[in-house]
Design a protein that fits this description.
Layout: H1 2-22, H2 28-41, H3 43-49, E1 59-67, E2 72-78, H4 83-99, H5 107-126, H6 130-139, H7 141-151, H8 156-189, H9 196-199, H10 215-230, H11 239-246, H12 249-259, H13 261-275, H14 277-303, H15 307-328, H16 331-362, H17 378-391, H18 398-413, H19 415-440, H20 457-475, H21 478-493, H22 498-501
Antiparallel strand pairs: 1-2
Helix pairs in contact: 1-2, 1-5, 2-4, 2-5, 4-5, 4-12, 4-16, 5-6, 5-7, 6-8, 7-8, 8-10, 8-11, 10-13, 11-15, 12-16, 14-15, 14-19, 15-16, 15-18, 15-19, 16-17, 16-18, 16-20, 16-21, 17-19, 17-20, 18-19, 18-20
Length: 506
């Protein structure tokens, strides 16, 4: 049953994309939405069928020979790390499609790109074969580049090219790390194998071979740099604001809610297990970069006059906090990071949905073109305030749970780092309140805003669903944490962090 669900989540969107291309243009949107809702419905048996007590091992394993001579298999499985991200992907896909409903330019390939992107992102989270993971990781670039480069705004070609160059450069480094693992395993065992769990058994030489780094440290940086580009962590973040500003609304939703999570997922899935002592050595470096990114992203977001740019830079700040939690390598920090991954996807995806709603009517994202909308579109204003509170980590909503756990875990390792993290949270509240003030309050200064229409039911329903998840995680996060706990405890038991190894982490 579980195996069939995992295969369906990867295959159904591809079948849906084929049906869109074969069917009439007027059915493209309905076909895409129907397929996305089918995938979302599969989350229900997936959630109840997933055994949280055994989440440290892969469940629902699919293993089909692909390139037997190289030990490569089409292998899927789900554990406590991938489980919440698979659920998030299926939740955000129909919301992105609804947000893109009004797009008139070539709707067939446009909607097909969403389904193909969903398939590849889901495959990235489910792959238990390293080569298959790399294929999904690279393949995801194609539909995302098309969404930005074909259906984006005026500077879409520049943004798509910049996105490609940054991510492809990181992928080349990852490819070198992947090949090193293949060759090392073949040298030590005499056979080829791409199974992720098997490759973690490689014993690396401690001899420095390049710039004072040994093989394991080079493998660590090959993976880690690729993932840090995707997060993105300061100073590798410069592609993100351009991509968000130029992407269509649905593309921005999936980019923020799911695609960026592939970076933080990769750090947990590959950088820690394959890095071993290398992660211990370099975790403080990553932590400092995270802290800089938290403050930098918040400060730059505060200066923005474009709504999409503000949300984009807020992602740099929020995801810097997620990486900081990973660097703590204690159970609070890791749990907070995984939960905050989901929280960021929900709140930022909702923010892009709401920004896109205004842009579809006014074709402007500048704060100066708005103001006083609370009196004109009250339902929109209600949801914007709720989502903003989620982003600001107001107690009772999802953001509070993740940020509090990360800060608690960071305090155990280094109280000064936790203090800087708290500053980032405070600055985050400042720029979010500024967004609310400029959009909702004050007089209506532009005559066109008097005729703005409020949310229709088709737009309200996705926001209600997101709001319910924000409340559910904020008030009862155990429904997710209990599914991930054994996996996170397994990571916690490994003394990967330099501070954990020195006995400073509890």
């Amino acid at each position: 049953m579980m195996s069939a669900i995992l295969m369906s989540l990867c295959v159904l969107p591809l079948i849906g994309a084929l049906l869109i291309f074969l069917g009439p243009e007027k059915m493209a949107r309905k076909t895409a939405l129907t397929v996305s809702l089918l995938c979302l419905a599969l989350n229900i048996p997936l959630y109840f069928g997933f055994d949280g007590d055994q989440s440290q091992v892969f469940q629902g394993v699919v293993s089909i020979p692909w390139v037997p001579a190289l030990g490569i298999r089409f292998a899927l499985g789900i554990d406590g790390l991938s489980f919440p991200l698979v659920l998030l992907t299926q939740l955000m896909l129909p919301i992105a499609i609804v947000a893109s409903w009004s797009e008139e330019r070539s709707p067939k390939p446009f909607m097909a790109c969403f389904l193909i992107l969903s398939s590849f992102m889901t495959g990235t989270f489910l792959a238990t074969d390293l080569f298959l993971f790399y294929v999904f990781w690279e393949a995801m670039l194609i539909p995302m580049i098309l969404l930005i480069g074909v259906w984006g705004s005026q500077e879409r070609i520049y943004a798509a090219l910049k996105f490609f160059l940054f991510t492809f450069a990181g992928s080349l480094l990852m490819l070198l790390a992947v090949l090193t693992l293949f060759i090392s395993y073949k040298t030590q065992t005499g056979v080829m194998n791409a199974d992720i769990a098997e490759l973690t058994k490689i014993v690396f030489s401690k001899e420095p071979i390049f710039w004072g780094l040994n093989i394991q440290e080079l493998v660590f940086w090959g993976f880690t740099l690729a993932f840090l580009v995707k997060v993105p962590l300061f100073p590798l973040h410069t592609w993100l604001p351009d991509a968000h500003v130029q992407a269509p609304t649905g593309g921005s939703i999936l980019l923020a809610a799911v695609l960026l999570k592939m970076g933080t997922y990769g750090l947990l899935r590959f950088s820690i297990p394959f890095g071993g002592e290398s992660f211990a050595r370099f975790a403080p470096v990553l932590a400092v970069l995270s802290l800089v990114g938290i403050l930098y992203g918040a400060f730059v977001a505060f200066q923005q006059q474009d709504m999409k740019k503000l949300v984009a830079y807020s992602s740099v700040s929020h995801l810097g906090l997620v990486v900081l939690g990973i660097c703590t390598q204690n159970v609070d920090g890791l749990t907070g990071s995984v939960i905050q991954n989901i929280n960021h996807g929900l709140s930022t995806g909702a923010l892009f949905f709401l920004v896109g709603f205004l842009y579809d009517q006014r074709h402007s994202r500048l704060f100066s073109d708005y103001g006083g909308l609370a009196a004109v579109i009250p339902w929109y204003s209600f949801f914007l305030v709720l989502v903003a509170c989620s982003s600001m980590a107001v107690p009772g909503l999802n953001g509070f749970v993740g940020e509090m756990l990360i800060l608690l875990g960071t305090f155990e390792v280094n109280p000064w780092w936790a203090g800087v993290g708290v500053l980032g949270v405070i600055f985050g509240a400042l720029y979010t309140l500024t967004l609310l003030k400029k959009i909702l309050f004050g007089p209506v200064t532009t005559s066109e805003n008097h005729s703005l229409r409020d949310l229709a039911w088709g737009q309200t329903l996705p926001l209600i669903i997101l709001a319910l998840f924000m409340l559910w995680i904020g008030l009862a996060p155990g429904f997710l944490i209990n599914k991930m706990k054994p996996t996170l405890e397994n990571y916690w038991k490994k003394p990967q962090s330099a501070y954990a190894m020195s006995g400073k982490a509890k």
